[in-house]
Every structure is written in C-alpha cells, then in structure tokens.
Specification:
Blueprint (H helix, E strand, L loop, with lengths): L1 E6 L5 H4 L13 H13 L7 E4 L3 H14 L2 E4 L16 H7 L1 H9 L12 H18 L3 E6 L4 H10 L6 H4 L6 E6 L1 H11 L1
Parallel strand pairs: 1-4, 2-3, 2-4
Antiparallel strand pairs: 1-5
Helix pairs in contact: 2-3, 4-5, 6-7, 6-9
C-alpha cells in the first residue's frame, strides 16, 4: 500500500487578499513559510520518502522546505501545472462573486460545468492530474510519498485518490498549509490505472 501525504502550499500575499492565483508564480510570505515549517514538524514521523510538487513557486518553495526539514528528495513535476482561470487570474474571489454572480454560484455548485473566460475547463485539469497521479502510483507501489499541490489541483487529486466530491473550490482556494494523509490500496491503484489509461 502507498500513502500519499497531500499538502497545500503555504500562504502567499494573494491568499491573504483572497485572490485567485492560477498559474501566477507567487512566493510564500513569512506566515506561509512558518506554516510549512510547522507542517514539516508534524510530518516528521510520517515516513515520507520523497516529495513531488506542482510547477508553481509557492508549491516548489513548500516542497523544498519540507524536503530540507525531512532530509528527503524533492522533485517538481511540470505536468502538475495549476488550473488556468483565464481572466479570473489575479482577481479577488469576492470580485468574481459580485461581477458574475451566476457563474460564481455555478462554479461553487458544479465547477465541472464552467469555463472561466479565456480559461480552461476543469475536465482538462483532471486529465492532467489523473495522468500524473497514475505515473506516481505506478512508480511507488508502497511507502509514503508527499505531493504539494495548490488548489484546485489538490481537490482534483483528492477526488482521484479517495473518490469523494470536489466540494466548494472557492472555499478550498485558501486552505493553505493544510495536509492530509491518504492510504491508497494497490488494487485501487491497478484498477484506477486500468480505468484511466
């Protein structure tokens, strides 16, 4: 059995302003760095062997802090590019809610049915994330692997690994520094890989 420790990057200035980051390379702020140092201490006894991170600055910084503290390897995966929110990128969540209330509610209730202006569909993100997770799970049949993903990538990955609902992606957007441990059975890995190949 493999265990995935799914960690959201620490807080950035955009998170504090409740802005949509998308693919912007925003560094961790001091609070975000402190969050990840605390998370590293919490994860000391989890047995992590390697940590992968998404291809964005906050996730990479988070992965490097974690790897340094735990004395493990860190690897950035270019295939884990965050969701492209198009014209929403950099905007405050409340601004989207006020300017596009119907689209905002639809994204909250059924995000897979919405394409942000000049952005990408969540189904495209799912394909990218699922393919990368399949590669990771084929490579790591047992042990404990860290995965640092910003939202909504983290929620999409959790859907793949746990079969739960996406939930409220607007609320999840600011779940900085939060981590969860997910046990993935080998038969699940084989069935998932066969089902998505």
């Amino acid at each position: 059995m493999v265990r995935i420790v799914l960690l959201r990057p620490g807080t950035t200035s955009f998170d504090e302003q409740r802005r949509i980051k998308g693919n912007l390379d925003i560094p961790l702020n001091d609070f975000g760095t402190d969050q990840i140092v605390r998370a590293s201490h919490e994860l000391t006894d989890q047995g992590l062997q390697l940590v992968y991170s998404a291809a964005c600055r906050a996730a990479e910084e988070t992965g490097k802090i974690l790897a340094s503290h735990l004395r493990i390897k860190h690897k950035t995966l270019a295939s884990l590019l965050n969701f492209d929110p198009g014209l929403w990128e950099g905007r405050q969540i409340d601004e989207v809610r006020q300017r596009q209330p119907r689209v905002f509610r639809t994204w909250q209730d059924s995000p897979e049915s919405v394409c942000p202006p000049e952005g990408e569909m969540l189904s495209d993100v799912k394909e990218r994330v699922f393919a990368t997770l399949e590669m990771i799970l084929k490579k790591h049949r047992n042990g404990v692997v860290g995965l640092v993903l910003p939202e909504p990538l983290a929620s999409v990955a959790a859907v793949f690994l746990t079969n739960r609902d996406l939930g409220d992606l607007w609320a999840a957007e600011n779940d900085c520094g939060f981590w969860e441990s997910i046990d993935v059975r080998e038969d699940f890995v084989l069935n998932s890989c066969l089902g998505h190949s």
